[in-house]
């Protein structure tokens, strides 16, 4: 049984169909990446899986139960967590206060503290700045904070929406090392990412969206060798220009 199964998902904004019959599976322990140009429906797909936008048709099953009509907080409580595009860090709060937002639905206070200490061990830069405002962090450090916050929600599946956007090459490499490390620790990952090469290199399965439809899906190495994908996403200059974190 898949950890996440999306079947025939359709989402519309007014008369505009953002998703058109999308099927997607994430098996336990997998990294699955979703690729596509701007406007392909990638972020809408993640938001629909979380329950932030209602489906027009289709279904979503997570951890063996139908969550199609569940509110976002119920899905998050069940272990389905989204790290949104742009990180959504509250810069007026401290680093530690931002982290604690990830645990706001949990009552096991002592375990939260233990897990927070583990996050500080994993991200020493955050530990050094734990009592400082999050506005003092670089873009890369804010992304690590957003992932740390998501980890405190005890995810079974972490969805990442364009996590490398705006990061320096050094932080992009650190980010993908972290994704692999979290996956080795048992976390399943659904990754929407504009850095096609790195996304395919770390994924177990890949899906390509165009205008809300799945146009390619399968083994990442096979897709990476496909001339259509190479021309559209892997050619020189196809990646968004990285900015320094």
From TrEMBL:
Biological process (GO), any one: L-amino acid transport
Keyword tRNA processing on entry: no
Residues annotated as signal peptide: none
Annotated ABC transporter domain residues: 4-236
Record keywords, A-Z: Amino-acid transport, ATP-binding, Nucleotide-binding, Transport
GO molecular function, one term: ATP hydrolysis activity
Family stated for the protein in its record: Belongs to the ABC transporter superfamily.
Protein name: ABC transporter
